[in-house]
Amino acid sequence: MKVLSNTSWVADKVSLMRISCSLEAGLWSASIRLSCQVHFKNVRLGHHQGLRIATGAFRTTRIPSLHVIRGEPSLELRRHRLLYKSLSYFYKIKSDESHPQHYKVINAIFGSLFSVRLSFTSTFGFRIGEILRYFEIEDFPIVSNVEDPSPWQKTQLDFIDDFLHFFKPSTSDNVFQQHFYDHRQRYSDYVPIYTEGSKSDNHVGSAGVFSDFTIAQTLHPFCFVYTSELYSIYLGLLKITILNFKKSHYLYRF
After folding, report:
1. The domain that contains 245 carries what CATH number?
2. pLDDT surpasses 50 at 33
3. Residue pLDDT, tens place only, 229-248
4. What is the DSSP letter of 1?
5. Residue 141 domain flag
6. How do 214-219 and 249-253 pair as beta strands?
7. How far, in Å, CA of 69 to CA of 54, rounded?
8. Backbone Cα Rg of the chain
9. What is the pLDDT of residues 109-123, one digit of tens each?
10. Half-sphere exposure of 150 (CA within 13 A, CB side)
11. pTM of the prediction?
12. In the sheet where 204-209 sits, what is the strand order?
């Protein structure tokens, strides 16, 4: 760039900026590929020198000012963006026990070697540990992903839905009430559980009503109303399992 900056055909700032960006793109990709601190320091020195040549700034000019002139973030900020993507990939590996790198990423080795030999390229698991400590992120456990059933596989669910043949918009409320009373009489030996999920502008909740108590829980505002409905059923089934009821139960969702 020093040679090109002295020529008449690329001496303008725009041309030097484009050349500098092209050179830095190659150096930056190499730095990410090697992922070692020593190489990153060399890339940073070359980046600063290229900024001064392209903008025609003095050696005493502060680098943040040159970033403003050039209209781009610093190398540290760009590296932090890639670190966030690395964290996303780390949790993706951690949630998949069948991933070939799952054990190696969770149980990183050679940490003492990479701490002493900075020129060595550290493994992904060791680098993730440094990122978690740098951002003070707790390495919380993640539930493993469960493979969804294939689209061509049908899931058979056994349930009793006597209200299925009623079309709600065209059916009177009295019909539903009479049918509900008849249903309760036929299954009088069962303990009823009523579940409901609702969603408003800033609140999502699920609830389950038993004969002698009620359970309710607030969900994240981003959840859909279908999520609240399913979660209310889950609350009822979970309570039945925990309390180990002797009698049979019947779930009603409204």
Report:
1. 3.30.420.10
2. no
3. 989 988 888 888 887 765 66
4. -
5. no
6. unpaired
7. 11
8. 31
9. 776 776 777 666 777
10. 2
11. 0.40
12. 214-219, 204-209, 191-199, 249-253
SS3 content of the chain, % helix, strand, coil (to 5): 50, 10, 40
Number of domains observed in the structure of the chain:
3
In a domain, 168, yes or no: no
**Start-end of H helices in 35-123:** 37-55, 63-70, 75-94, 102-106, 111-116
| DSSP state at residue 216 | E
CA distance 238 to 244: 10
Regarding whether 247 and 214 lie in a shared domain, the answer is yes
**Higher pLDDT, residue 42 or 234:** 234
Q: How many helices (H) and strands (E) does the chain have?
A: 10, 4
Structural domain contains residue 188: yes
Token pair in block for residue 19: 């050349």
Q: Which domain holds residue 248?
A: 173-253
Structure tokens at 239: 């309570």
188 and 239 both lie in a single domain: yes
Does residue 3 fall inside a structural domain?
A: no
Amino acid at 175: V
